[in-house]
Design goal:
48 residues, mainly alpha, 1 helix
């Protein structure tokens, strides 16, 4: 019988949790960078 990594406590679960945290922090970094990139774009758009 196969046990999924989600139900198996231990290493696989820790690795999944670490990957999830890294992914969430990377997403928030990308969101922040996108917000910073939008500011010059809005300023550029006001010229027209």
């Amino acid at each position: 019988m196969r046990v999924s990594a989600f139900h198996a406590p231990g290493l696989a679960n820790d690795r999944n949790a670490a990957a999830l945290r890294a992914n969430q922090s990377r997403l928030s970094d990308e969101r922040q960078a996108a917000r910073l990139n939008a500011v010059p774009l809005l300023a550029w758009h006001r010229q027209f």
